[in-house]
Design a protein that fits this description.
There is one protein chain. By secondary structure, this protein is mainly beta. It has a single domain (about 25-210), classed as Sandwich (Immunoglobulin-like), CATH 2.60.40.420. About 10% of the residues lie in helices and about 45% in strands. The protein has helices at about 1-20, 205-210, and strands at about 25-30, 40-45, 60-65, 65-70, 70-75, 80-85, 90-95, 100-105, 115, 120-125, 135-140, 145, 155-160, 160-170, 180-185, 190-195. The strands form 4 sheets. It has a 5-stranded mixed β-sheet, with no helix packed on it. The longest helix has 18 residues, at about 1-20.
Length: about 210
């Protein structure tokens, strides 16, 4: 009987833990005209003890048709990015960004060594051979972060109830022009709408002016 009670207690505890894991924050990001803002990064942080990071520890940036794919990737602080080359030509990948500086050549069909990003912030990535190529690595020290899709939507899952603040970044928003963090009270599944002013100019035309 004692062992049966222990088993029942363990099952009840597991159910309680699963239901107390947190809710989903559904995010919609739009520009100043109300249009969906794709490739925006939304991050959630709070002023209390931070939970373990839910941000990916590793991302991949591919190169096809003289284009970095995707435009924006997300990794946690201390995470790594691997570059692949599925193009028909060699590329010379580099970054002069404050949080990470590197340069290497990658021939067609090759995979780079992991690039470690140990500082939070944004790194603009370019190619010394093809000036039109640009990508961004967003390195998050917040425990929750996600990138919006073509509809400007993103999901942040397993967010504990409580007071949070949400910040948003976009590759076409200049440093110092991002909106101030938005206070958010999470209570189960929660919706969050954010607006950000973005430039109509292509991001690659000023990639190293801001990042």
């Amino acid at each position: 009987m004692f062992h049966r009670l222990l088993s029942l207690f363990a099952v009840a505890s597991a159910i309680a833990c699963s239901t107390a894991s947190g809710g989903t924050v559904d995010v919609v990001v739009t520009d100043a005209n109300g249009k969906p803002a794709a490739n925006a990064v939304v991050a959630l942080a709070n002023d209390t003890a931070q939970p373990a990071s839910h941000v990916p520890p590793r991302s991949v940036i591919d190169q096809q048709h003289e284009t970095f794919l995707p435009l924006v990737v997300l990794v946690r602080k201390g995470g790594e990015v691997v570059f692949t080359n599925n193009d028909t030509t060699m590329h010379q990948v580099y970054s002069f960004s404050a949080i990470k500086q590197f340069q290497f050549e990658i021939d067609k069909g090759q995979v780079s060594k992991p690039v470690i990003f140990d500082k939070a912030g944004v790194a603009a990535i370019g190619c010394n051979i093809h000036d039109n190529m640009v990508a961004y690595v967003f390195v998050a020290d917040a425990p929750y972060a996600a990138i919006t899709d073509a509809k400007g939507t993103a999901e942040l899952r397993d967010v504990p109830d409580g007071a949070w603040h949400a910040s948003v970044w976009h590759p076409q928003s200049r440093i110092g022009k991002q909106p101030a963090p938005t206070a958010l009270a999470v209570a189960g599944d929660t919706r969050l709408a954010l607006k950000i002013q973005i430039s109509a100019a292509p991001a690659m035309s000023r990639m190293h002016k801001d990042y």
